[in-house]
Design goal:
57% helix
Amino acid sequence: MSELAANAPLPAQSDKKADEFAYASQWQLTWWAFKKHRLAMIGLWVIGLMYLIAIFSEFFAPDDPFKQNRRAVFHPPQMIHLIDRTDDGLRIRPYVWEMKRERDPETLAVSYSPSGDKVYLRLFGRGESYKFWGLWETDLRLLATVKPRDKFFIFGADRLGRDMFSRVMYGTRISMSIGLVGVAISLILGITLGGISGYYGGRVDVVIQRLIEFVLSLPTIPIWLALAASLPPGWPIVLQYFVITLIVSLIGWTELGRVVRGRFLAMKNDDFVVAARLDGASEPRIIFRHMLPSLTSHIIASLTLAIPLMILAETALSFLGLGLQPPAISWGVLLKEAQNIRSISQAPWLFIPGGFVVVAVLAFNFLGDGMRDAADPYGQ
């Protein structure tokens, strides 16, 4: 009986899975391995949500991020309640407790306390009109008050009474996109110079490697500070954005360039490269059609680990006052508001943008670790 069981054919389901694995493409194997990494999947969802906020910042922001309100200076955060207790029973209806502003007659210090009234909120409500990406005008927002004159502050307000939640939503667009733009520039420089260095070798390799060593020898933070400080303060916000991105990218391409060079040196004498060369393929075709695709997974993993460095660099420069300048809104610009003792003591919620920086960096690191492990699915 045991011999029959040992010689029995495998179930059809197992055969089907084995066939799927045997005939799966490299991308399918990578995706299956990536899905097993739980932290990487969490990081993927978090990053996807942040980029969704970055694209639709106007929709997610309940108010104009530049609108000042002197009656709401350092307004504390308000918690959203979902269950409303009324005389008719319990109802599911979001609201916040309205805060009344008081001033101490002796110290003139301003304080806020619940007034006992409720400010009811509405999902997909109508608020102040805005132009989505400057293209068309609408007033649809994710969260709006039922009464147009009511105000609410989920993340509190800053020293000018501006809604911090709206400003964080708008800051997500610049802080998250500067990583993508910076990495795109680093990708082009790293692949181009690293590929040329590894494929051709000789004097070209020597010159490019000396250039990489020179860039790596520069003290990163002082160079960033010097270049950022040299920007004219009167430049438009868009120009400041692209110049800061370029400055951040000038340092980040060297590591990728070295990785691409090393892989090209190892592959340029492999059988498939020699066969393509003997078949009459041009050098650009050999590089872009045969050699670079084998590096795709490693390049993607390197890029996901480089994006948080770009975000941290922009945040640090803007926090020190040498990056983006107001009225531009980024996480670093918002954190600049929390540099003095008064902000720390009276409005600790001004540090909330720092929490977004931490979450974004951790999510990218988890994603990069997962993609790096999944780059070799046969080794799992």
